[in-house]
Write a structure and sequence with these properties.
The protein is an alpha/beta fold. The protein has helices at residues 16-28, 48-59, 77-84, 96-112, 132-140, 151-161, and strands at 4-9, 31-37, 68-73, 88-92, 117-121.
Length: 166
C-alpha cells in the first residue's frame, strides 16, 4: 500500500527549512503533496499561483521531487486530506513554541478526522531559526537572503518589495 502525506503551509515564501522538511518527508512516504494554503482573508506577499511557481522551481533539480505534487487548497485541511485519501499530515517543528501550536492543531485535526495522523519533523538544526516572516523582513529591507531561501525566491521577494520601502 502506498503512503500519501500532505505537507501543508502557506509557503509565503518557501524557505530552506521547508525544503529540508519536504525532503525528509519524501524519505518517509511514497508520495507527498505540498498543500499551499490559500486564504482570501490572510494577506500574503505572493499569490497562491506565485507560491506554487516558486516551489516548482525549487524542486526542478531534486531527484526526490518526482514523488512530490503541489496543490493549492482552501478550507479545512482535514477535508482536503480526506479528498486526497492522505493518511498523514507532515508538520515542521523548529522550536518549543511551534510545538505548542502544532500540538493543538494536531489534536483538533484528529477530532475532525480520526483516520488522519500528524507527524512532526524537525529541520536540520542549522535551519531551525529560519521563518518565512523573518525572511520577508530581511527581503523587505533588501538584505542578503542567500542562507535562507534559494536565489530565485530571494529575487522574487526583492522584486515584490522594491517599491514598498518607506
Amino acid at each position: 500500500m502506498e503512503t500519501l502525506a500532505l505537507y501543508p503551509g502557506s509557503f509565503d515564501p518557501i524557505t530552506y527549512g521547508h525544503l529540508d522538511i519536504l525532503e525528509r518527508a519524501t524519505d518517509l512516504f511514497d508520495e507527498v503533496i505540498i498543500t499551499v494554503a490559500v486564504n482570501k482573508q490572510k494577506e500574503t506577499v505572493f499569490s497562491g499561483d506565485e507560491r506554487e511557481a516558486l516551489i516548482k522551481t525549487c524542486l526542478a533539480d531534486k531527484e526526490w521531487a518526482k514523488r512530490v505534487e503541489i496543490q493549492q487548497f482552501t478550507g479545512l485541511l482535514v477535508d482536503f486530506a480526506k479528498e486526497k485519501d492522505a493518511q498523514t499530515l507532515v508538520r515542521g517543528v523548529r522550536q518549543v513554541s511551534d510545538f505548542e501550536y502544532e500540538f493543538r492543531m494536531a489534536l483538533t485535526n484528529r477530532r475532525l478526522a480520526p483516520d488522519v495522523d500528524t507527524v512532526f519533523l524537525m529541520p536540520n538544526e542549522q535551519l531551525t531559526f529560519i521563518s518565512a516572516s523573518l525572511v520577508k523582513e530581511i527581503g523587505y529591507w533588501g538584505g542578503d537572503l542567500s542562507s535562507f531561501v534559494p536565489d530565485h525566491v530571494a529575487e522574487a521577494l526583492h522584486e515584490k518589495f522594491k517599491d514598498q520601502k518607506q
